[in-house]
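Researcher: Please generate the 3D structure of the following complex. Treat every line as part of one assembly.
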Amino acid sequence: MAFPATKPKPPELPRELRRRLDCNQGAVRAVRFNVDGNYCMTCGSDKSLKLWNPHKGTMLKSYNGHGYEVLDAAGSCDNSQLCSCSSDKTIILWDVAQGQVIRKFRGHAGKVNCVQFNEESSVVISGSIDSSIRCWDCRSRKPDAIQIMDEAKDGISSIKVSDHEILSGSVDGQLRRYDLRTGMMLADYLGSPITCVSFSQDAQCLLASSLDSTLRLIDKDTGELLGEYTGHKNQSYKLDSCLSEKDTHVVSCSEDGTVCFWDLVEGSLVLKLPVCKGVVQSLSFHPTEPCLLTASEGTVQIWTGESQEEESASRD
Amino acid sequence: MAAQDSDGEDDFVTCGKPLEQYEEGEKAKKPIPLQEQTVKDEKGRFQRFHGAFTGGFSAGYYNTVGSKEGWAPSTFVSSRSTRSERQLCQPEDFMDEEDLGEFGIAPKEIMTTDDFASKSKDKIREKARELASVSAPIPGATMLEDLIAPAKISIGVQLLRQMGWKEGQGVGPRTKRKPKNQNRGGVKVYGCALPLTGSEGSENEEEDEYLPENVTFAPKDVTPVDFTIKDNVHGLGYRGLDPRQALFSSVDMHFDLFGDGSEKASSLLGDVRGSKGRKVGISGQAFGVGALEDDDDDIYSTESMSKYDTVLEEERGDGLFGWTAPKEYKNTKGAVRAIQHVSKALDGFCTAETPASRKKIYSPPDLPRDYRPVHYFRPVLAPGSHSSAALKTMLDSAQKPSPKPPEETTQSRHQLNASQRRELLGETALQGQPTSVLDILTDKDRERIKEVKQAAEQQKVKAQALAQEALKSRFQSSSTAETLSKFQPDAGPVPTQSGGFKPFDINPEKQKRYEKYIGALHQGQKDGLESSLDPTMTEWERGRERDEFMRSAMLYKGTNSALSSRFTLPKHEDDQDKVEVLRDEEGDLNDKASAVKMKMFGKLTRDTFEWHPDKLLCKRFNIPDPYPGSTLIGLPKVKRDKFSVFNFLTIPETPSATTTKCEALPTSSESKPKKTSRWDRSPSDSKDSVGQLVSQTRSELDAKKEELKTPGEKEKPPAAPPAKATAEPTEQVPEEDVEERPSMDIFKAIFADSSDEKSSSSDEEEESEDEAPAAQKESPRTEVATASSSAQEPVTPAPTLPVLPDITKYQEKTGADEEFGPWLPPVVSTNVPGTSGVLPLLSVDEPARKQKHKRTKDKHKAKKEHKHKKEKKKKRKKQKHKNKHRNKAAESSSSGSEESSTGCSDSERAAELTPKELLKRSVIPASSIKEAVTFITFLSSYSLIEPHGCDRSVTRWMLFYGHRGFLALCATDSSLLTEMKEIVSLLIKVLSEEVQFSMKMF
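Model: Done. Output below.
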């Protein structure tokens, strides 16, 4: 006699403001969860990179060394290193604990928009406004990039890395995917400058947001359009988008100060979360829980689902 | 009894351990928990279940397959320090003691295998016996039996013995009759038996023998057929030369010593049977019949002692008993016959009764009478170009001058020296000691040698030309003659020596030919063109060159004067005839855009390229290299012929020219369809185009930086859209020697500036798009001001932050400032005037600038008013028109194509406009866009750009840095300056109507 399986709860959306972090580092250009979602990095326009515990609201460390505003950051798989990129055309590999610069990669000709670790955190992959993607080796001391992918005709705005792929979105409207396993580069033309790309959890789909205020879900293998998500506003700025923790929803920043949630399958706008008056520039979704970080102007806000909030409230 | 018991036990097959007997009243034992069910190895170490070899338990080092040192074997010796001698690895090297142990995969201990274990191999039976012995009345009886039992008798032998068989006898019932007959009758024939041979007759003769009635014979023992495994690669029946056989004497050896005739004996001794009466000498099966020998008696025979009679009265069978295997047992008496027989057929084979039908042999086809078994390859490349390139690089790099005149182009590869081959292969020269005497010569001497050589060359060329003239005139199409006649009358004042202007200076031979042609033209020779062409070239190449010559002669007819003499030739020439283009071609962007519009994503919008990741990258990603053999990295590129601009320019009434174009175009257009489309569409956002241009320029410059030592490996591929009667000679235009590349922002800034000047020929859309950047560029201050008033401007108090201009509309933003692509949202709205954006880069006249400001402001306002994109576009178009009219004076030069363009009062603007126009109309192939850009930059630098260093932001700084760097280049590097001049002069020449402005400028 078995109990009937509990009815799966509908996926929760992080609609409750849990905490607000005043980052004090100018505009927060990007906010990123670390690999397990316990910490987050904020990239400030005052050249600093800060490490936070967003759940407790404490700042852990500030990393200073960039010459200009920090545009993106990523944490390594073992949480021992951070990498960040900046308008000063460099990428810095940080030691998390000591806050020291481990490596500084120079070579980009313009500001570096995005940076990612590979799965093993042995390579840093950066995309720059100079329309090149560069892969930097963290293990050797060589100053040069391992490989430069300069196929893009315009700046690279976003990069994502899976275990064997490098996905890049470029302002030339092309979504390029470099597949190391098959040795192919697949370019999908989306027509409008791409601001952000991401993989789905099952690595079957690609999500790309572009400056025509549209997010597109693309089939990875065929390049076919699986879904389109509109309703937000993204015409000028490089805004982030992502998928929710269980791929149930598509999340995107909007220029009207909201964060929009769409049902991935239906494509309907589920929630328009008002965040601030200005532009929500960056967001990051918790890897496993319905928890969202949004960065707007100089603050980062943490949003969680109701139940989680209760939980954490009870924990507190 | 015991046997019975055992029989009873036999019926069961027991697997696993029997359950323990459950006794009543006893408490059920607690099952051993899983964690306590452990397995230990012989040393008492716990073994974890592993699921691999050795019974599923751990192997190797702590459940890994490696060793303590990891993957590297303990015998690993780094080859860097000490070369380890190559050692052959046995499988045992990779086994540990468990593998070599009793139950491993390769047990080392000597033990009896099952084959030899004992008569009773059945384990179950044995077990049963053991059990029986225990329960038997006399315990241990069977153990005794085991002790006595011989270790090794096969069950078959044992059974036979029990049946009364004795060793040495044959197997079978005893016979009364002659054993041979008995045998013959009793032998079952499997498969095909040998037909009865004549030997039977002889046996029949012997039949009259005494046969006792009651005597039975055991059947004859049979020598088992010896199947020797063929373990070599020799032919069937081959046996190497036996030295004994070769060297042994002619003694008629009859080794009758070994009575039993066993194979062993004979094989031990080797086959020492010499053929009867054979002379001493080397002979063997490997050798054929000697010249002095009449017959090779037995080529394929296999000798054995069993061929000989060893036993009296022994009956002979064929010994095969149905086997169609090689005969082992031969009749000595019928030796001669056997030999004869064998000579006809191999052992084990017999001659067929009916001869096989002959294969029909067909005679080969008759060759045509004029067939020559040599294939001539048509020369594909212009032969002169290689050697000229070789010569040039040699002279330039002060390595060794080519010992041969470069005109010797028909030389075969055997006549090429190493350096020439190197040049052909496109390799770089080795840096090192000079290898030739010529290296030691001074420059002056070298120059002299070169001159002498060239003189000789020229004579040679002339002679060749004369000789080929008749030939050529035959091939010459009438169309060319027509065009010639058409062209020549209005050729007008053709420069005698083509002035100082050398359009084909890059290729000395070509230039020479061109000069020759010019000379001929001047003298009024009709066939001057034909005679001046290189006879060694292919017809097609000649046709191409013919067109080029004609056009360049036409284009440069008026420009032999002081202007051209003002400029010197570039120091560095780019001598490539080829360009690298992507092998996998990208689809047309326009098609894709329309597909996107129709939301037909998928195949239409997808391009697939082969992409080679770096080996190290694969390693870091833990992925096997998808292209293990390839040394390529990135997208594979293909070298394509780079044609000169003239290929893409048509003189409409020239039939031959059009054909040339047709030939040339497919390659070029398919080589870079992308670029054409870029400039054609003058894209929806001009920023994009700038971005593309910039990235392109940048990548190119990057590439060039790497190859700076070997100048000019890459050049932009020609992406020339056809059909413009203006030309821009790329071949002559040198690549700038970039030490410090001009910042991309320069180009952008200048484009943004110059984009104010619009030509009505360009479509409206692009104009409206193009204006936006200008607006941004010109009045960042106003822009910020207006932006701050907009509702979308987020207000964040962070006054320390640098100002980023706020542009809320993508369209507005496009091409503006130094930003590419999407913007970062603004941080502050406070207007810091000191850190304003880029001020006008060109020191245009103040009124003009103000006008621009005003206009852009207007435009900006207009844009602000309209939120909707399309609406806005329309409005902007209107606005644009208005502005145009208003600013007619300022941009007077803009209207119309360059043919109809009116004279411009503002020289600097005109100079800017011209290349802009060129770009717009895609007149200039892609390879010269960069030059055009540099040209623009150059012009703007001449109009005294003042670097504005007020903004400390990096990108802004880069812009100024670029400017400074460029200016510095202009100032310091005279060669660059001359190059610039060259470009300018060329452009001027190409667009003769703009000459006046440029003249003003200079």
